[in-house]
Design a protein that fits this description.
about 450 residues; 2 domains; 16 helices; globular; mainly alpha
Length: about 450
């Protein structure tokens, strides 16, 4: 019964699941594309050097891809479930049990994830061939190797996407349906502490390696990811505590401060991808630049392993940029669209559309500054130990160009999505916005 209700929900409101479908589609595409390198490496006639390159690409990027797929799907599903609080409460009042509601939401998510994975098969096949050609052009894989798209790619893509969707949906709807008698936040505090502690340990382990170790970049990179996640989860609470002390005046400033303090819970969906994008992209690009300068200073040509590492790093940054921006845009679009009724009420209370847009701009500014600041700290935590071990310096010598570019992309995604979505929401009259959202 609940599964049939889930199918009707998907058919009647496909737009609600568009963000989840997009996340599942892109996630499955990335996972299947790189795991097809594992199928290719296992084919007959592949030499040892090519096999090692292809297996490394599948293993490293596959692990990053799996983590990011879960975060992307979890982010969109959490926003989706939070916006359906009235619908879930109505189902409970109609006699549905929490377990039935969970089965309905999980069933919806699994169906959407399966559709996204199916749609990703053909693009993954084409992208896998392009990736193999990239390895061939850089001399990391022999020209005689043919691309193979087999069971490893298909199984990993479908399994990762479906499991991520089901797990994220279960956790999101459980928070919405379970009535708690004790204060919330213990699980979140545990995740924050675990991410920060493990990130610090991973970063500090860099000093146990030598400057010529092939795996020197791995510990600071993983440490930056974990620290970015921890800071992203920690940032909403700190922003809530500090926002009241900011010198924001006027109606727009007053509204921005009040709303950010009251709605701190929804900020995690924005600050986690924003911090992750800034921290990981900055750390990886600076560490790769330091590595390139160190190789050039040594006066030796790049080895196959060095080329392979550079390709993987650039691809990983590309994946993080795409996924983080999608998570950020999805969260901002969904949360801003959901505030249509709030905007209508503010206009009925006397606020003008210009003041509301100014308020959204101030919110975006505070979110961008917070996310970029925590991301920069996470990036420095990874880049500084790597630079100290790899060279004689402490800070990278590349200047602020890379960081400023990353900040510009983050600010454009945050401001562009928020302001454009709010401007679209303000096209309806205030009375119509309130009545439609009611």
């Amino acid at each position: 019964m609940m599964f049939a209700l889930a199918m009707r929900s998907v058919r009647q409101r496909p737009g609600r699941f568009a963000a989840t479908l997009l996340s599942a589609f892109l996630g499955a595409t990335i996972v299947m594309t790189f795991n097809s390198m594992q199928d290719t490496a296992g084919a007959r006639g592949v030499d040892a050097v090519s096999k090692d390159t292809l297996s490394s690409a599948a293993g490293v990027v596959g692990s990053y891809g799996t983590l990011l797929v879960f975060f992307a799907v979890a982010s969109t599903l959490t926003v989706n479930v939070r916006q359906r609080s009235s619908e879930i409460e109505l189902l409970r009042c109609s006699g549905a049990t929490p377990s039935q509601i969970r089965r309905m939401v999980v069933g919806e998510s699994v169906v959407v994830a399966l559709v996204g994975a199916l749609l990703a098969v053909v693009p993954s096949l084409l992208a896998g061939r392009m990736l193999l050609d990239l390895f061939k052009d850089s001399g990391q894989v022999a020209d005689s190797v043919d691309h193979a798209f087999g069971p490893i790619a298909l199984y990993s893509g479908f399994a990762t996407t479906v499991v991520a969707a089901a797990g994220a949906a279960f956790l999101a709807v459980r928070r919405a349906t379970v009535r708690r008698t004790r204060p919330r936040g213990k699980g979140r505090r545990f995740l924050v502490v675990a991410a920060l502690v493990l990130g610090a340990v991973s970063v500090c382990s860099t000093f146990a390696l030598s400057g010529t170790d092939e795996m020197l970049m791995a510990p600071p990179a993983y440490g930056s990811i974990l620290l970015s996640v921890g800071f992203g989860l920690l940032a909403p609470g700190l922003l809530k505590a500090l926002v009241g002390r900011l010198p924001l005046t006027g109606p727009s400033g007053y509204l921005a401060v009040r709303i950010l303090r009251v709605q701190a819970a929804r900020l995690s969906g924005v600050l986690v991808p924003l911090t992750l994008f800034t921290g990981m992209a900055t750390a990886t690009l600076y560490m790769q630049a330091v590595e390139n300068d160190a190789i050039d200073a040594a006066g030796v040509p790049k080895s196959v392993d060095a080329k392979n590492l550079e390709t993987l790093n650039l691809v990983i940054v590309g994946i993080i940029v795409v996924f983080s921006c999608i998570m950020l845009i999805n969260s901002l679009y969904a949360s801003t669209t959901y505030r249509r009724k709030e905007f209508g009420q503010q206009r009925l209370a006397g606020a003008t559309p210009g003041q509301i847009l100014h308020m959204i701009g101030l919110e975006s500014l505070l979110l961008t500054v917070t996310g970029v600041a925590f991301g920069a700290v996470a990036a420095l935590a990874g880049a500084v130990p790597f630079t100290m071990v790899r060279t004689d310096g402490v800070l990278p010598d590349q200047g602020l160009g890379i960081w400023l570019t990353i900040v510009a992309v983050a600010a454009a995604a945050t401001f562009g999505t928020s302001l454009l979505t709010a401007r679209r929401a303000l096209k309806d009259s205030a009375v119509q916005a309130v009545s439609l959202a009611a």
